[in-house]
Design brief:
Elements (H helix, E strand, L loop, with lengths): L2 H6 L22 H13 L2 E3 L10 E2 L3 E5 L2 E6 L7 E2 L2 H8 L4 E5 L3 H14 L4 H25 L4 H20 L4 H4 L9 H18 L4 H12 L10 H4 L7 H8 L1 H9 L10 H6 L20 H15 L11 H9 L7 H13 L5
Antiparallel strand pairs: 1-6, 2-5, 3-4, 3-6
C-alpha cells in the first residue's frame, strides 16, 4: 500500500503530530486525548444526512445541525410541535455548508417519515420523484446499517439489511445508471454506516457491469454491505478518532476483518458466497494486505471488487487530518497501485462511474 493511500485511509501516524500535550493528574490521559474521546462518544449520538434529501418548500419537524470541528452547531431548530418550512434561504444554508449536516439519533424516525411523506404529499416532477425514491432507499439503508452496527447480533436487522440489498440490486438491474443517485457525491465525512452502503452500491454496480447473474450480485452486495460489521467491536474513541491512528490503534482497527466474520457466522441467513467480500476486502494482489496476506489468485473475485470499492470510498471521504480526493484523483491513485488492485476490474469500475457522471 502506498504512503498516499495509507494516509488517507487512516493508517498509523508514524511521524506523530509534534503537539505538546499536558497530562491529567487524575486520569493519566492528556487533555487532548480526553477531548477526543468525549467528542468521539458524542459523535455517535448523531446521524449523517444526505443534504440533497431536504427540499425547498417542504416542512421538517426535526432539528438540523452541522458538525464543525468538534462542535455540533444548530442550523435549524424544529420539532413536531413547531415544524419549519424550508424556504430558499434555509435550503441554501444547508446545501452550501462546508460542514457535515446531521440530526440527532432520536429524530431518525421523523427524518424517515419526512422522506416517505415527500413522495406522496409534494408535487414533484417525475425525474425528481425517481431520485427521491432512490434517496429514500439509500437513506433507509444507512439507518438499517447504523442499527445493525449498534446491535450486530440482531437476526431481525440482518434480514432487514438483506431486504435493503435486494432493493438496491433490483434498482441497478433495472437501470445501472441509477448508481449515481445512490452514491454520496459530495465529499462527506466518514461514518461507517454510510461507507458500508456506498461500498455495497459500488460493488454491486461492478457486478452488474461485468455480467454477473442476479444471485451472484446479491451475494456480493450482501457481503459488501456487511464488510465492516466487525467495526462494531471497535471502541468508538478509536473508530471515530479525529486524527491519525497510532500503530497500536491501527492494529486494533485491522482486527475488524476477522471480528466481522466471527459476528456473521452467528447468523445462518448470510450466504456462504458473501463471506469473501468481508474477509478479503483489505487483501492486496501483492500480498501486502491483511489479515492473511493473500496473493494474486488467492483473492477471489468478490474480494477484489470489494477491495477497490472500499479503497475508492475511503479516498473520497473527508477526515479531519486529510481532505477527500476528487473522484478522478482517487481513481488515479488506485490505478498507480497496479500490483495491489485488479486492473481489469478497475477499468470496469472507472467506466461504471463515468456512465454515472461522477463529478471530477
Amino acid at each position: 500500500m502506498s504512503t498516499r493511500i495509507r494516509e488517507i485511509t487512516n493508517g498509523p501516524d508514524e511521524a506523530g503530530d509534534g503537539a505538546i500535550r499536558r497530562r491529567s493528574e487524575d486520569t493519566g490521559l492528556s487533555t487532548e486525548s480526553q477531548g477526543i474521546k468525549a467528542f468521539s462518544l458524542r459523535k455517535t449520538q448523531y446521524f449523517q444526512l444526505a443534504r440533497n434529501t431536504l427540499l425547498e418548500n417542504t416542512a421538517i419537524d426535526f432539528s438540523v445541525f452541522r458538525e464543525k470541528g468538534r462542535v455540533f452547531e444548530l442550523v435549524i431548530r424544529a420539532d413536531p410541535r413547531l415544524p419549519v418550512i424550508l424556504d430558499k434561504g434555509k435550503i441554501a444554508k444547508i446545501h452550501n455548508s462546508k460542514h457535515e449536516i446531521i440530526i440527532e439519533n432520536r429524530d431518525i424516525p421523523l427524518y424517515q417519515a419526512y422522506l416517505e411523506v415527500g413522495l406522496s404529499q409534494y408535487r414533484l416532477a417525475e425525474d425528481v420523484q425517481t431520485v427521491r425514491r432512490v434517496s429514500l432507499l439509500k437513506e433507509t439503508s444507512k439507518i438499517l446499517m447504523k442499527d445493525l452496527l449498534d446491535n450486530p447480533d440482531s437476526t431481525e436487522k440482518i434480514e432487514e439489511i438483506k431486504t435493503s440489498v435486494i432493493a438496491i440490486i433490483d434498482t441497478l438491474f433495472e437501470n445501472a445508471d441509477m448508481i449515481r443517485n445512490m452514491l454520496s457525491l459530495s465529499q462527506y465525512d466518514y461514518y461507517t454506516y454510510t461507507h458500508c452502503v456506498d461500498v455495497a452500491v459500488l460493488s454491486a454496480g461492478v457486478g452488474v457491469a461485468i455480467g454477473l447473474g442476479r444471485d451472484e450480485v446479491l451475494n456480493l452486495g450482501i457481503g459488501a454491505m456487511l464488510h465492516d460489521i466487525g467495526k462494531s467491536a471497535i471502541a468508538p474513541e478509536i473508530l471515530n478518532k479525529q486524527g491519525k491512528l497510532d500503530s497500536i490503534e491501527y492494529q486494533t482497527i485491522q482486527q475488524h476483518v476477522q471480528a466481522g466474520v466471527s459476528i456473521l457466522r452467528k447468523h445462518k441467513a448470510i450466504p456462504e458466497g458473501s463471506y469473501d467480500a468481508v474477509s478479503q476486502h483489505h487483501e492486496k494482489l501483492s500480498g501486502k494486505g491483511y489479515p492473511f496476506g493473500l496473493r494474486g489468485g488467492e483473492i477471489t473475485l468478490f474480494g477484489r471488487i470489494t477491495g477497490i470499492a472500499d479503497c475508492y470510498d475511503a479516498l473520497t471521504t473527508n477526515r479531519v487530518y486529510k481532505k477527500a480526493l476528487r473522484p478522478f484523483d482517487a481513481l488515479n491513485c488506485i490505478s498507480q497501485e497496479s500490483k495491489d488492485y485488479d486492473q481489469e476490474l478497475l477499468k470496469t469500475f472507472v467506466k461504471m462511474l463515468g456512465k454515472g457522471k461522477v463529478e471530477t
